[in-house]
């Protein structure tokens, strides 16, 4: 299962992600909404870095993730963040079940690609649509098919003071899936190193395919943007953002 072993060192390996900049971008979208955005779902919230950033900006946050290990990190990180403490739920996207409605849903850092079944993603989109208030906003990003194809055969290294990760990427055109095989080494409090292996998969969704799934789920005013931009994606761009609304 992805993120079981990696959860404890995920933040160290993603230290270059500027969550404040991501939150700035999301807030600009929120400001364009006809519906005042107060309650926000962070879908596939991971260790809660973005959840915390938005909570500290005054939003009432709900974090959902399918990894118990990542959620444990998120709960600890977000303790005391914001006037209203974020709520965390252990759920998969396609089985999303909230206690009430939300004004916006964000799903960041190519988490959509991790749903490797289009049928499950269609169900996830319907679940998000169900819990959004009329006029609510759904924002997410993907790694583009071009980017995932370009990773085929590449080897990467991430390291910090107490963790080390070597990962290899392989792309299957037939399955439309990029597989990351990871060897993770982590320094434990005992002073000894432990080793874990993880397998991650990302599905290469075509932008037009995602637009159709959003429409089928009931979303309207579907727009595509370049990475953290308010312009249309450029050819060859590695990351695309989507914004879709639930009609009033």
What does this entry look like structurally?
The chain starts with 9 loop residues before the first helix and ends with a strand. The model has no long low-confidence stretch (mean pLDDT 95). The strands form 2 sheets. Strands 3-2-1-4-5-11-10 form a 7-stranded mixed sheet, sandwiched between helices. A 4-stranded antiparallel sheet has the order 6-7-8-9. β7 (163-172) and β8 form a beta hairpin. It has 248 residues and is of the alpha/beta class. It has 7 helices and 11 strands. α5 (118-131) crosses α7.
Concise account of the structure shown:
This protein is an alpha/beta fold and 248 residues long.
Write the layout of secondary structure elements.
Blueprint: H1 10-13, H2 19-32, E1 39-43, H3 49-55, E2 60-65, H4 68-77, E3 87-90, E4 102-107, H5 118-131, E5 132-143, H6 145-150, E6 155-159, E7 163-172, E8 177-187, E9 193-203, H7 207-217, E10 219-225, E11 239-246
Parallel strand pairs: 1-2, 1-4, 2-3, 4-5
Antiparallel strand pairs: 5-11, 6-7, 7-8, 8-9, 10-11
Helix pairs in contact: 2-3, 5-7
SS-based structural class?
Answer: alpha/beta
How big a fraction of the residues is strand? 25-35%
Arithmetic mean of pLDDT: 95
User: How many DSSP-defined strands?
Assistant: 11
Individual helix count: 7
Radius of gyration: 18 Å
* Poorly predicted tracts of residues: none
Largest sheet: 7 strands, mixed
The coarse overall form would be globular
For the largest sheet, list the strands in their spatial order: 3-2-1-4-5-11-10
Structural features:
248 residues, globular, alpha/beta, four-stranded antiparallel beta sheet
């Amino acid at each position: 299962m992805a993120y079981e072993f990696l959860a404890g060192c995920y933040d160290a390996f993603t230290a270059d992600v500027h969550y404040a900049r991501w939150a700035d971008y999301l807030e600009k979208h929120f400001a364009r909404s006809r519906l005042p955005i107060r309650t926000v779902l962070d879908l596939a919230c991971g260790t809660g870095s973005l959840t915390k950033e938005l909570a500290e900006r005054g939003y009432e946050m709900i974090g959902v993730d399918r990894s118990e290990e990542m959620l444990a990190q998120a709960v600890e990180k977000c303790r005391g963040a914001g006037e209203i403490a974020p709520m965390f739920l252990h759920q998969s996207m396609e089985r999303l079940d909230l206690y009430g409605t939300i004004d916006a849903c964000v799903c960041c850092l190519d988490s959509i690609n991790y749903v490797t079944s289009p049928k499950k993603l269609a169900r996830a989109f319907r679940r998000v649509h169900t819990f959004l208030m009329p006029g609510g906003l759904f924002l997410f990003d993907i790694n583009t098919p071009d980017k995932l194809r370009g990773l085929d055969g590449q080897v990467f290294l991430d390291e910090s003071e107490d963790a080390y990760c070597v990962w290899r990427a392989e792309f299957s055109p037939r399955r439309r899936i990029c597989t990351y095989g990871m060897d993770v080494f982590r320094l434990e409090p005992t002073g000894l190193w432990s080793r874990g292996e993880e397998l991650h998969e990302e599905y290469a969704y075509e932008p037009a395919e995602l637009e159709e799934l959003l429409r089928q789920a009931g979303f309207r005013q579907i727009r595509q943007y370049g990475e953290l931009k308010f312009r249309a994606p450029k050819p060859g761009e590695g990351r695309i953002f989507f914004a879709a609304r639930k009609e009033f």
